[in-house]
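Homework help board

Subject: predicted structure for assignment chain

Our instructor gave us this sequence and asked us to write out the predicted structure in token form, then describe one feature. I got the tokens but I'm not sure how to describe them. Can anyone check?
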Amino acid sequence: MALSFQNAELMELMRDFNILTGMRLVLFDENYNELLSYPDADAMFCSCMRAYPAFDGKCRMSDRTAFEQCRKTRALHIYRCHAGFMEATAPILEGGRIIGYLMFGQITDNPDRKALEEQIGAICQAYGMAESVRREMSRIRYRSEEQIRAAAKILDACTGYVRLREMVQPSGRQLIDAIGQYIDDHLSEEITVARLCAEFFISRTRLYELMRPHIDGGIAAFVRTRRLDKAKTLIRTTKMSIPEIADAVGFSDYNYFLRVFRQRFGISPRKLASERAED
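My token output:
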């Protein structure tokens, strides 16, 4: 899903996060592509290490594993990367779907600088890295476990904030498709404009601007059409009774369902069901 984002506002938030925590914050799309970060470049020691292809490959694999775990749980994930450094990633959710991630990392929770130097030395030796890489060890930032968890909670809160402020959102067409899918997945429930706005972190104005070119008769009519189309499919493909189908697609008033179904399709539900039986 393609993402659009408010570069200036998001960059300001990332800068504030960096000032508060000293950590680099990165935005990724749902396919794990880096879109924006502050500071712009990796920490120097990571940049030096990732200049070695074999090590860089392990870094990419470690990132992917973290994203996949985050996708599986749909929750904040704090972990130790393959090189032993601490990182965290949190999903940006849109109507229950992950549309991107925020991540921080490149820090150590080891206060013992000598032990850390031995850790870096072992990595340098294993990958045949130059001595200059080892010297960058002094730049590695230390944070306690408590500080890391606190920063991770702030990171998680930022994912909701960037959606609430519409700093990050799917591009128009993708968002419309996501709204349609959400409606289809919740047809048996009450679906209102307020609910859609809350689920997708968008204003009523933004919702109507997006949907107006693609629907006739407003949001309520769009939802009703999805309900009726699903009812027609169920009549044709299942042995459910007509009242059961009406209830399954969210019509609490059975007589109203019969009336609007005939208006849309020019045939009654019972007649359509009888035609299916004849086939």
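Reply (TA_rk): Your tokens look well-formed. For the description, you could write something like this. The first strand starts at residue 3 and ends at 5. That's the kind of observation they're looking for.
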